[in-house]
């Protein structure tokens, strides 16, 4: 059987094969590149693609399924279309469907996909490729010419001067590309003019112009873009020549005297700026107060470091590593100090000085939180290879020479090393923190504070925060039994090979180096500690014009004033003042420098204002005279010295501070006036002669005496030091409660103390007030035939009952006539003694009554002398006296057995050890006096 001329079997085979192939037609998707980049020139339609637009299909060469029928574009407002050039090879082309303008849009990005022809002629079962990104860049055509921003430019210059720039012209171009939109050149069209113009449009004069020769110039300027296309319209420039004028500040004084305590003093009350009538658009004035030669860079408080920290509210517990040399702080005695500048304690290190801090001073409890602070003045290190310069170092005292923590300068970088001890995990931990700052080597004073909150470490320089630019890790230090050594000015090297010595010496100046363990310093306290007390100020801010702008630097040593109008700037400058809030500022010069820049319309600077230099002369302040007055001698009985509260040597103390005015009238200096607002910063009570023996005496001050005051105190066998910035009245109150106690007064001949007080860390000191404390000795024994007790020379109020120690007299009841005469004479003499004694009792009592009023807390009994009566019985019964003597002895024994209360630094256990000795001494004293016939009175409860 045949079909269409073919055998049936062959036809069936062909049909079966075609059916089998048809079941697998269009199995694969077309494939194209993932991204294309193209370039098209504006106003043209052909896009050059890289790579070329070609789509492939794995179904080739099967018709339709292996052929590419279309490329489709997806994107908003993409003015492009893709056309298939060859369906079999998959080649295509991308072209613009509408005009492309570079000035409207420089770049286009859209999506393209390829489509095959499907399974048959109808395009059924077609497949599409993945999405590819097409990025088209539009090339620019130089179709626009430069255009000047202003058709006419005006400027003026002063005759006889050569200007770098009189004014600047500016043109621009609408083309989109940098090549055609940038202005590459300007030219002066007018020939024969004494002017030139550079590529930036700055016009300058090429010769010195004369106002008499020509007063103005008209020139024409053109511009070219980088495609060398010239501006269609040139710009006109009008330049006026002005006669010679001397712009600058007028009406100011080179020296301004500042009297301390006068507050804010205007510096330029009549000053004005002469601009020679130039059309100005702005004036900027920089006023700089130069105080680098004063102490630590300016007039700061010179109180001690501890006093300043208390004033600023810093946490307690800081350790001063550079204190003033003293018997208790002798490790700084060998250092070079410079305290000549207003008693501001400064230590200079020249690369040879260092000090070991004693072990009992070194903080031993540095935890994850602590603060290191210091004032430092440092310059560039000498030599080509700068070595490490150690400020503070804690290293092994012997053997291993490990650095536990240190602060040093290296190549104008500040480095803080902190090697933590090995705890549990033997792993790298932050160890070195580096800061690179200009302040480290600028030869100026700066205040550095390092707050450690491990592993974070923050540096404050003059109150500004700086994070480390580099942190280096290191292994922890394994614990050992090697002691450490803390040093200042170098690092201690205690190795085994070389003998122990200092290395890495510091070159510079330091002051106020402290460590505070357990706490970090707050921003507020840091700012307070480094704050200047002098600076620039502006009075009457509300009266300034609205266009005036001003700002200070943090130290208020630099003031910038800006304004658009010269008159407004002149008014603002008359209000610039100098202020020094210190009560006793450092006298001397403060230099002023005024720099002025004037801006004209369309110009950076059109007038050259010469810098102005002046000085502020801070006059010598009226120095205070601190005077301590009071009783120079204190005589008290033994019972008062042994009492739990002892005696108050400074109970009658008075401190005054007077200032002598410097004005003269009729050749005589005016009288001083009393200042009530002065502060003291320390008072020292020193023991004159041998130091206190803690086994029998003490000088004490209760802590309650300092409550509510900015005061602290230290106590030792050499005296008491009260310190802190506080008022004179608070110091008086504290000193009046200082107690001297001696529980073995029998051996006391006299004890002398010296009191001195200071203002501004020793800048002003008081007189040396000396006081002597001595034991009240009883009157000499007198024989009384009639057994009448002699009245003591001094009487005092005490806490104990009446005690009278008398003697047993074996006298005959019948006196001979001669003896009677003697008795009468003695009675007459005793009457005179009694009268004198009563008078002295009354005078002494008046003083002690005033003392009792000041000591309201002491349980002493007041005397009542309103009804003084002393009854003397010449025929007193001897048995009564003997019985009374027995009672007195028993009472005295009870008195001696009372516990001694600790008031200051002595414990009750320390004072009880000598009770048996004291009691035995008192018994022997009573027996001796009974044998000698001496009569002792204790009149604490006597009615008179």
Automatic annotation (TrEMBL):
A GO cellular component entry from the record: postsynaptic membrane
Cell compartment(s), UniProt: Cell projection, Dendrite; Endoplasmic reticulum membrane; Golgi apparatus membrane; Postsynaptic cell membrane
Region called Disordered, residue ranges: 886-944
Domain of life: Eukaryota
Record carries keyword Cell inner membrane: no
This protein's record includes keyword Cell membrane: yes
GO biological process, any: homophilic cell adhesion via plasma membrane adhesion molecules
GO molecular function: calcium ion binding
Pfam families: Cadherin (PF00028), CLSTN_C (PF19699)
Compositional bias segments (type: Acidic residues): 893-902, 912-923
PANTHER family named among the record's database cross-references: CALSYNTENIN, CALSYNTENIN-2 ISOFORM X1-RELATED
Family membership: Belongs to the calsyntenin family.
Protein name as annotated: Calsyntenin-2
Source organism of the structure: Takifugu rubripes
């Amino acid at each position: 059987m045949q079909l269409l001329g073919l055998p049936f079997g062959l036809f069936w085979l062909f049909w079966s094969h075609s059916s089998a192939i048809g079941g697998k037609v269009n199995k694969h998707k077309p494939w194209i590149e993932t991204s294309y980049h193209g370039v098209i020139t504006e106003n043209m339609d052909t896009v050059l693609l890289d790579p070329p637009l070609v789509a492939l299909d794995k179904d080739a060469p099967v018709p339709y399924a292996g052929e590419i029928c279309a490329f489709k574009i997806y994107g908003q407002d993409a003015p492009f279309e893709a056309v298939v050039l060859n369906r079999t090879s998959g080649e295509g082309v991308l072209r613009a469907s509408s005009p492309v303008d570079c000035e409207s849009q420089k770049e286009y990005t859209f999506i393209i996909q390829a489509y095959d022809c499907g399974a048959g002629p109808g395009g059924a079962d077609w497949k599409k490729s993945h999405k590819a990104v097409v990025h088209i860049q539009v090339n620019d055509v130089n179709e626009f010419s430069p255009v000047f921003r202003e058709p006419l430019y005006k400027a003026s210059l002063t005759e006889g001067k050569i200007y770098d720039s009189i004014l600047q012209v500016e043109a621009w171009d609408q083309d989109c590309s940098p090549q055609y939109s940038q202005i590459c050149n300007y030219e002066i069209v007018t020939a024969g003019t004494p002017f030139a113009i550079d590529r930036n449009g700055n016009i300058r004069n090429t010769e010195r112009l004369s106002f008499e020769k020509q007063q103005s110039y008209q020139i024409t300027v053109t511009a070219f873009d980088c495609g060398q296309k010239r501006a269609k319209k040139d710009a006109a420039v009008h330049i006026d020549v002005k006669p010679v004028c001397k712009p600058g500040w007028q009406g100011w004084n080179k020296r301004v005297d500042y009297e301390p305590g006068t507050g804010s003093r205007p510096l330029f009350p009549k000053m004005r700026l002469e601009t020679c009538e130039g059309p100005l658009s702005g004036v900027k004035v920089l006023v700089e107060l130069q105080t680098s030669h004063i102490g630590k860079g300016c007039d700061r408080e010179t109180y001690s470091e501890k006093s300043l920290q208390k004033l600023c509210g810093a946490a307690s517990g800081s350790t001063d590593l550079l204190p003033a040399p003293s018997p208790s702080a002798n490790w700084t005695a060998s250092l070079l100090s410079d305290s000549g500048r207003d008693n501001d304690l400064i230590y200079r290190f020249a690369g040879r000085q260092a000090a070991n801090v004693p072990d009992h001073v070194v903080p031993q409890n540095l935890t994850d939180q602590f603060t290191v602070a210091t004032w430092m003045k440092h310059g560039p290190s000498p030599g080509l290879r700068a070595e490490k310069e150690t400020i503070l170092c804690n290293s092994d005292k012997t053997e291993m020479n490990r650095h536990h923590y240190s602060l040093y300068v290296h190549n104008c970088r500040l480095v803080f090393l902190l090697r933590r001890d090995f705890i549990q995990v033997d792993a790298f931990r932050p160890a070195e923190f580096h800061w690179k700052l200009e302040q480290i080597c600028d030869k100026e004073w700066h205040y550095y504070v390092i707050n450690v909150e491990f592993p974070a470490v923050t540096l404050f320089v003059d109150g500004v925060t700086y994070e480390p630019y580099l942190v280096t890790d290191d292994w922890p230090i394994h614990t050992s039994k090697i002691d450490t050594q803390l040093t200042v000015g170098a690092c201690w090297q205690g190795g085994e090979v070389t003998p122990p010595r200092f290395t890495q010496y510091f070159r510079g100046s330091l002051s106020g180096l402290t460590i505070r363990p357990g706490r970090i310093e707050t921003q507020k306290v840091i700012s307070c500690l480094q704050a200047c007390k002098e600076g620039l100020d502006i009075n009457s801010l509300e009266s300034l014009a609205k266009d005036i702008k001003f700002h200070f630097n943090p130290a208020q040593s630099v003031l910038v004033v800006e304004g658009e109008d010269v008159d407004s700037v002149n008014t603002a400058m008359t209000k610039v003042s100098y202020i020094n809030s210190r009560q006793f500022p450092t006298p001397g010069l403060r230099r002023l420098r005024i720099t002025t820049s004037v801006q004209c319309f369309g110009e950076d600077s059109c007038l050259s204002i010469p810098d102005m230099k002046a000085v502020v002369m801070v006059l010598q302040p009226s120095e205070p005279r601190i005077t301590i007055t009071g009783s120079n001698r204190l005589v008290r009985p033994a019972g008062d010295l042994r009492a739990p509260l002892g005696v108050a040597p400074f109970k009658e103390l008075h401190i005054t501070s007077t200032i002598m005015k410097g004005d003269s009238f009729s050749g005589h200096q005016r009288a001083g006036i009393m200042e009530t607002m002065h502060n003291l910063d320390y008072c020292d009570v020193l023991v004159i002669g041998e130091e206190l023996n803690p086994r029998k005496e003490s000088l004490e001050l209760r802590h309650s005496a300092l409550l509510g005051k900015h005061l602290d105190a230290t106590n030792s066998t050499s005296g008491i030091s009260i310190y802190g910035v506080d008022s004179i009245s608070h110091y008086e109150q504290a000193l009046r409660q200082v107690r001297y106690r001696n529980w073995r007064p029998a051996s006391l001949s006299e004890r002398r103390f010296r009191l001195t007080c200071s203002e501004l860390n020793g800048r002003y000191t008081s007189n040396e007030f000396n006081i002597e404390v001595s034991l009240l000795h009883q009157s000499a024994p007198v024989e009384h035939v009639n057994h009448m007790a002699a009245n003591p020379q001094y009487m005092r109020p005490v806490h104990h009952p009446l005690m009278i120690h008398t003697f047993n007299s074996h006298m005959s009841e019948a006196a001979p006539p001669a003896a009677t005469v003697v008795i009468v004479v003695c009675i007459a003499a005793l009457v005179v003694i009694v009268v004198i004694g009563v008078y002295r009792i009354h005078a002494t009592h008046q003083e002690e009554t005033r003392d009792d009023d000041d000591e309201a807390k002491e349980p002493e009994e007041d005397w009542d002398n309103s009804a003084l009566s002393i009854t003397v019985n010449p025929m007193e019964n001897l048995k009564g006296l003997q019985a009374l003597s027995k009672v007195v002895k028993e009472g005295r024994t009870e008195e001696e057995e009372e516990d001694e209360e600790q008031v200051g630094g002595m414990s009750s256990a320390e004072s009880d050890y000598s009770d048996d000795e004291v009691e035995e001494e008192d018994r022997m004293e009573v027996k001796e006096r009974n044998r000698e016939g001496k009569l002792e009175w204790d009149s604490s409860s006597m009615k008179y």
